[in-house]
Amino acid sequence: MAKLLLNLRHVPEDEAAEIRAMLEEHDIGYYETEPNRWGISAGAIWIKDDSRHQDAMVLMAAYQGQRSAHARAQREQARIDGSAETLAQQIRKQPLRLVFILFALAILVAISLWPVLLLG
Known about the structure:
This protein has helices at about 15-25, 50-80, 85-95, 95-120, and strands at about 5, 30-35, 45. By secondary structure, the chain is mainly α. It has 2 domains: about 1-85; about 85-120. It has a 3-stranded antiparallel beta sheet with strand order 1-3-2. The longest helix has about 30 residues, at about 50-80.
């Protein structure tokens, strides 16, 4: 029976391609399910043979550790050379987003405090 290796929801295409290549390199049989048209299922990568599932999980853990370290190094390099986007730059780029977030927070606080205000 097949076992799930990776749900492809929010997985970039380059990462999915690297995982497929890794599985092929280590001769681990897999297949993919496609996402459905309504977005309920995002698709997935499944391991065909149960006995190879643990091997695939070990490879995935190593791969994700490498990818995480690489992303952190890129972020740190961007911070050092000044190309990383700061909060102030994000606010300047999308000021209405900040206004909307603050408005939503104010509504949530008001709704949360409404029963307390009615009692007092």
